């Protein structure tokens, strides 16, 4: 199984498949992995999310880190791991959820918004940080936070990210991004997912070249 450092080194973009159905998930996973994605989450407020995670883990678990988003309780952490998931993503900084994820040796990417939340998350064992919602912040906020956060902690901006607006966030110190509706909307075709995934991967690669 790929680890977080390797996944981020290959393509530090998290595919957020909110609303996807179990019967759609394998084709979507194939399209994402082919485009270079190595981090895939199914939010728990999607239809039958644990079945989708189980299918994802079987399909692409060797090539990508698969897990759940919108994880709010320690019981859900256990359920995700039992389904084969290896990553826990939350919209908030819940110390118990972070600590339980770390105890289970799962990737923990909690949502945070302030330095206080960020340092609390790291103290609890977070693997990285998810600035959420990024729409309510600015790249200047990332730059200021980067001055105090540990340099080796991955910081991902999530919310409102599109291929054409990643540059300023990257320049400010974001290490990657979580991608929601600009990558996947419920009911999207496999071709639409593939096209969007390639557009994001291309945008990231072009930033890295500059």
Question: How do the helices and strands line up, and which of them pair or pack?
Answer:
Blueprint lengths: L3 H7 L2 E4 L5 H14 L3 E5 L5 H12 L4 E5 L4 H9 L4 E3 L5 H9 L3 E3 L1 E2 L2 H10 L4 E3 L7 H8 L8 E4 L7 H7 L3 E4 L10 H20 L1
Parallel strand pairs: 1-2, 1-9, 2-3, 3-4, 4-5, 6-7, 7-8, 8-9
Helix pairs in contact: 2-3, 2-9, 7-8
Q: How does this model look, in words?
A:
Helix content is 46%, strand content 16%. It has 210 residues and is an alpha/beta fold. The longest helix is centred in the C-terminal third of the chain and has 20 residues.
How far is it from the N-terminal to the C-terminal residue, by CA?
31 Å
Strand content: 15-25%
Helix content: 40-55%
* Secondary structure category: alpha/beta
Mean pLDDT across the residues is: 97
Biggest sheet: strand arrangement: 5-4-3-2-1-9-8-7-6
Which series of helices and strands comes N to C?
HEHEHEHEHEEHEHEHEH
Number of helices: 9
Poorly predicted runs are none
What is the number of E strands?
Answer: 9
The largest sheet, given as strand count, sense and whether it forms a barrel, is: 9 strands, parallel
Radius of gyration: 16 Å
Shape: globular
């Amino acid at each position: 199984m790929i680890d977080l450092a390797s996944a981020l080194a290959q393509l530090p973009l998290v595919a957020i498949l909110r609303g996807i159905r179990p019967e759609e998930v394998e084709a979507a996973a194939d399209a994402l992995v082919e485009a270079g994605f190595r981090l895939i989450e199914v939010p728990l407020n999607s239809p039958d999310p644990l079945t989708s995670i189980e299918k994802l883990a079987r399909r692409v678990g060797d090539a990508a880190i698969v897990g759940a988003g919108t994880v709010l309780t320690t019981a859900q952490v256990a359920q995700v791991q039992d389904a084969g998931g290896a990553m826990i993503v939350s919209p908030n900084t819940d110390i118990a959820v972070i600590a339980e994820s770390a105890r289970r040796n799962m990737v923990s990417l909690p949502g945070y918004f302030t330095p206080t939340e960020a340092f609390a998350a790291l103290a609890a064992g977070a693997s990285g940080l998810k600035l959420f919602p990024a729409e309510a912040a600015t790249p200047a906020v990332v730059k200021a936070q980067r001055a105090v956060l540990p340099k080796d902690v991955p910081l991902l901006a999530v919310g409102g990210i599109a291929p054409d607006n990643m540059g300023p966030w990257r320049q400010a110190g974001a290490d990657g991004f979580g991608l929601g509706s600009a990558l996947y909307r419920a009911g999207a075709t496999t071709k639409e997912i593939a096209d969007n995934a390639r557009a994001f991967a291309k945008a990231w690669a072009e930033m890295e070249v500059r």
